[in-house]
Amino acid sequence: MQTVWVFGDQLNRKIGALAKAKPGETRVLLVESEALLGWPRHVQRNHFATAAMRRFGADLEAAGFEVDRRRAPTLRAGFEAHVSEHRPDEVVATEPNARAARALCGELGVSLRRSNQFLCHADDFAAWADGRERLRMEDFYRWTRRRLGYLMDGDEPEGGRWNFDADNREPPPDDPSIFTTPPRSTLDAIDEEVLDSIPESFGARPDGTWATSRRGALARLRHFVDHELARFGPYEDAITQGSWHLAHSVLSPYLNQGLLLPGEVCDRVVARYAQGGIPLASAEGFVRQVIGWREYVWGLYWLWPDHAESNAFAHHAPLPPAFTGAAKTKMACLAETLKGLEDRAWVHHIQRLMILSNFANLVGIDPKQLLAWMSSQYIDAAEWVMVPNVMGMALYADGGRMATKPYVSGGAYINRMSDSCKRCPYDPRRRTGDDACPFTTLYWDFLARHEGALQGNHRMARPLMSMRRLRDLPAVRDRAKQVLRGLEAGSI
Q: What is the CATH number of domain 309-489?
């Protein structure tokens, strides 16, 4: 009998090697790696990964498959134990989504089948990228959208524009109750068994926010399409304490685990848009996130194997105590974002980019340390997601290989796009003094520190010119030193 080895982020009957597998002819191997679970990770991430795998195994058994579900010290150990016990005629797997897993399959003689888990295979992305002087996500997005046909009018974009991003930058609404509450699951015996079996970790225990089955993931998709899609565009970049999710789909964990596939998600969104009542800016903004940004990041992960080594700004500062839990911070936006991670192992992309990553860059945190920390925190973390997003988009650690400029800002941006500053002892308008916003102070200090590296970037010309005009720049830089000492001491 043939064995199909299914990795924990390929939990779908339609993916690769499992797509044509038949009960009675195929045995399925699922390995829970204690090495992966033992690495310090948020408890909700470990619970989600393990419970989803166990439920998927149960679904396969209900469909008539023989399933070998193994808990083993490592993936290799689980594979070797399976082969020793069952002696399969052949072991096949869908191309794994991480380099280490693919290398392991090669070492073990596992036959790989082409993956269809993404809409653009890494080989096709490499062919698209070949010969281009510079890679731009917008170019890839247009190529992909034409290829897939989403929101197209012949060969041109519906509405006459490819990108409605400029329309999707509304600050948070005065009444956050306009956002509905996503469905919750009731924890059952499987959840309790999983929680008893995974190592002690950090973070709040699961409360049903995250589905761990395909059925639950589909319910979340339906809820988003029916109740939040229309509002997704305008409030895509907003932050409010009144809603942790706003109109975001909150589907990334299910997409990254395979419980949902990108094509079916986009099909649902476009079909709902076609029914009427959904602004084109919302439908296009969501489709762009999935077939544009997500697929682009996936392609870059395979194209640039050295990306994780990036550190263009030579940043080497350790994680501040507020990140490690050794101290609290008085900065409202940062404290609320960190609390969201503790409670749910998830915050949306603007909190990741313009609060956590922005702060890390301004402070000068070592990119590898931030990469490891974020990878341990997020329920939707995967190596292919984290490396390009952190090293390229978030930190500009690759020196502009991926993004056209560093995404850094002072407190003014945070004040405009969030309601956090209303609850903060620091003033986003001030750059010196004890009540100056640390983001504002450190922003100008960052520009001064890295003026030489940034002066050739045309998108940084205006900020650098403004920095040079600051009459109080020496005082700002002195205040920055005080802020950094205060962060290290846990008093900021």
A: 1.10.579.10
